[in-house]
Amino acid sequence: MIHSTKRTIHTLVFCLFATALCAQERAPLPDKLVSAQKLFLINDSGDLKAYDKFYSELKKWGYFTIATSQVTADAIAVLTSRAEYAVSVGTGTVIANGNVATGIGSSVSIPGTYLHLKVFDATTGEPLWSDATEKWITAGHAPSKLVSNLKERMPQPRTKKP
Q: Is residue 6 domain-resident?
């Protein structure tokens, strides 16, 4: 009974510390990003499905109005895509004979494609936000994740201007 109670207390303490470690304080977002109302979108990813999904996720969120002109926008969101070599797989064979060893090896790099989102101030070009996530197989996961990551950090609901 005593061991069971101690184990329960240890488990509770561990859970409290683990929760505290996971609830890390987030860096503040630039005021220009938080106060931006109109967002102009640029697709430099070469992936129309990902771009369309990104657009629909932003519309569904509703934090920004999508601008159709860079001139009327407060911020510019640029969606890009890049293959990055994330994993390298190698194999080898060594044959030892006395003090001499010979070997044959091969290596293959496996690229992972990442979707990047960069947001800039429309007037100054100052970078305001940057994020990236792996595209996986479907075009829908990465754009949704990029919008979700930004949404998690933005004040909710939008702070009204005086």
A: no
Structure-token match 């859970």, residue found: 15
37-63: pLDDT as tens digits: 999 999 999 999 999 999 999 999 999
The model's pLDDT over 127-162, given as tens digits with 9 standing for 90+, comes to 999 999 988 766 678 999 999 999 999 987 765 544
Q: Which amino acid is at 99?
A: N
Residue 13 is assigned to a structural domain of this protein: no
Tokens of 13: 């303490």
**What's the order of all strands across the beta sheet hosting 127-134?**
65-67, 38-44, 75-97, 100-121, 127-134
**C-alpha closest to that of 151 among 57, 65, 66:** 57
Termini Cα distance of the chain:
61
Query: Measured on CA atoms in the order 147, 154, 28, 23, is the torsion positive or negative?
Result: negative
Domain containing residue 61? 31-153
Question: Among residues 121, 87, 125, which one has the least CA distance to residue 107?
Answer: 87
Output the six-digit token pair for 114: 């990442």
Provide the domain count of the chain: 1
